[in-house]
């Protein structure tokens, strides 16, 4: 029977999680979901060739914007976006950059990856 006890990294993450505010916990969980989903939905023939842009609400969070943009651009390889999106997310959470600025940069990031996707003949980078 496999050992189900948390390892050192899991225990550390749990300790950090317990010390966070409810809002920070929600942000961490949403970001973890984004990271976990980066490999899901690998190249599907059902994906639209054009983005279906979804408008975000005025008070949108950075995490919600990442989810919205991922849904708007399902044809893009999430792994290719991960590093840059993670850096922007960190700038918001750790450095206090305003959500509106980070969301605007995320929108530009997704649009530029889409332009590269189109330039490559509609295949992931």
Q: What series of H and E elements makes up the topology?
A: HHHHH
Please tell me how large the radius of gyration is. Answer: 16 Å
Q: Structural class of the secondary elements? A: mainly alpha
Oligomer: single chain
User: What is the overall silhouette?
Assistant: globular
**Proportion of beta-strand residues:** under 5%
Provide an overview of this structure.
The protein is mainly alpha-helical. The protein has one domain (8-38, 61-119). 62% of the residues lie in helices and 0% in strands. It has 5 helices and no strands. Helix 3 packs parallel to helix 5 (99-119) and helix 4 packs antiparallel against helix 5 (99-119). It is globular and about 45 Å long. The mean pLDDT is 83.
Features:
62% helix, mainly alpha, 125 residues, 0% strand, globular
Give the secondary structure arrangement, pairings included.
Blueprint: H1 8-18, H2 22-37, H3 62-72, H4 78-95, H5 99-119
Write a brief caption for the model.
By secondary structure, this protein is mostly helical. It has helices at residues 8-18, 22-37, 62-72, 78-95, 99-119. Helix 3 runs antiparallel to helix 4 (78-95), helix 3 (62-72) runs parallel beside helix 5 (99-119) and helix 4 (78-95) packs antiparallel against helix 5.
């Amino acid at each position: 029977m496999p050992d189900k006890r948390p390892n050192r990294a899991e225990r550390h993450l749990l300790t950090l999680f317990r010390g966070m505010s409810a809002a920070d916990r929600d942000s961490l969980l949403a970001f973890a979901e984004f990271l976990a989903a980066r490999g899901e939905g690998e190249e599907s023939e059902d994906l639209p060739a054009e983005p279906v842009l979804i408008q975000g609400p005025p008070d949108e969070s950075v995490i919600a914007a990442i989810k919205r943009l991922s849904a708007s651009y399902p044809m893009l390889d999430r792994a290719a976006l991960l590093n840059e999106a993670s850096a922007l997310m960190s700038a918001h959470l750790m450095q206090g950059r305003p959500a509106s600025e980070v969301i605007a940069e995320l929108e530009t990031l997704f649009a530029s990856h889409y332009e590269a996707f189109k330039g490559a003949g509609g295949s992931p980078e």
